[in-house]
Amino acid sequence: MPNKAFQLGDIVQMKKAHPCGTNAWKVIRMGMDIRIKCTGCEHSVLLPRKRFEQKLKKVLVSAQEEI
User: Name one Pfam family in it (predicted).
Assistant: First the structure.
Protein backbone atom coordinates (compact mmCIF):
# COMPACT_ATOMS: atom_id res chain seq x y z
CA MET A 1 0.00 0.00 0.00
CA PRO A 2 1.52 3.36 -1.01
CA ASN A 3 2.13 6.03 1.62
CA LYS A 4 -0.44 8.81 1.63
CA ALA A 5 1.15 12.20 1.05
CA PHE A 6 0.35 14.81 3.68
CA GLN A 7 2.16 17.83 5.03
CA LEU A 8 2.00 20.47 7.73
CA GLY A 9 -1.14 22.60 7.45
CA ASP A 10 -3.21 20.08 5.46
CA ILE A 11 -6.87 19.47 6.31
CA VAL A 12 -7.31 15.69 6.42
CA GLN A 13 -10.22 13.28 6.80
CA MET A 14 -9.87 10.40 9.24
CA LYS A 15 -11.70 7.06 9.01
CA LYS A 16 -13.79 7.73 12.13
CA ALA A 17 -15.55 10.99 12.92
CA HIS A 18 -14.78 12.96 16.08
CA PRO A 19 -17.50 12.86 18.78
CA CYS A 20 -18.32 16.53 18.03
CA GLY A 21 -19.51 15.38 14.59
CA THR A 22 -16.68 16.77 12.46
CA ASN A 23 -14.46 14.52 10.37
CA ALA A 24 -11.97 17.20 9.25
CA TRP A 25 -8.66 17.67 11.08
CA LYS A 26 -5.77 20.10 10.53
CA VAL A 27 -2.19 18.80 10.78
CA ILE A 28 -0.43 21.19 13.19
CA ARG A 29 2.76 19.25 14.07
CA MET A 30 4.83 16.65 12.23
CA GLY A 31 7.67 14.41 13.33
CA MET A 32 7.67 10.91 14.77
CA ASP A 33 4.29 11.91 16.19
CA ILE A 34 1.58 13.83 14.34
CA ARG A 35 -0.57 16.40 16.17
CA ILE A 36 -3.95 17.10 14.58
CA LYS A 37 -6.61 19.62 15.60
CA CYS A 38 -10.34 19.11 15.08
CA THR A 39 -11.74 21.85 12.85
CA GLY A 40 -15.06 21.73 14.68
CA CYS A 41 -14.25 21.96 18.40
CA GLU A 42 -10.49 22.78 18.27
CA HIS A 43 -9.57 19.65 20.30
CA SER A 44 -6.04 18.43 19.49
CA VAL A 45 -4.76 14.85 19.48
CA LEU A 46 -1.20 13.50 19.31
CA LEU A 47 -0.82 10.22 17.39
CA PRO A 48 2.25 8.15 16.48
CA ARG A 49 2.97 8.55 12.76
CA LYS A 50 2.26 4.88 11.97
CA ARG A 51 -1.16 5.00 13.66
CA PHE A 52 -2.00 8.33 11.99
CA GLU A 53 -1.17 6.90 8.55
CA GLN A 54 -3.38 3.87 9.24
CA LYS A 55 -6.34 6.04 10.28
CA LEU A 56 -5.93 8.66 7.52
CA LYS A 57 -8.61 8.40 4.83
CA LYS A 58 -7.69 11.28 2.51
CA VAL A 59 -6.38 14.84 2.31
CA LEU A 60 -9.31 17.23 1.90
CA VAL A 61 -7.38 20.50 1.45
CA SER A 62 -3.66 20.64 0.77
CA ALA A 63 -1.67 23.42 2.45
CA GLN A 64 -0.18 24.23 -0.98
CA GLU A 65 -3.66 24.90 -2.43
CA GLU A 66 -4.38 27.55 0.24
CA ILE A 67 -1.40 29.70 -0.80
Answer: DUF951
Task: List the domain range (segments joined by +) for residue 47.
Answer: 11-60
d(CA 30, CA 7): 8
Count the Cβ atoms, other than its own, within 10 Å of residue 50: 10
Domain count of the fold of the chain: 1
Starting from the edge strand earliest in sequence, which strands make up the sheet with 24-29, in order? 44-48, 33-38, 24-29, 11-14, 56-61
Q: Rounded to whole angstroms, how far apart are CA atoms 14 and 37?
A: 12
pTM (two decimals): 0.84
Using the Cα atoms of residue 6, residue 64, residue 11 and residue 57 in order, give the sign of their dihedral. Answer: negative
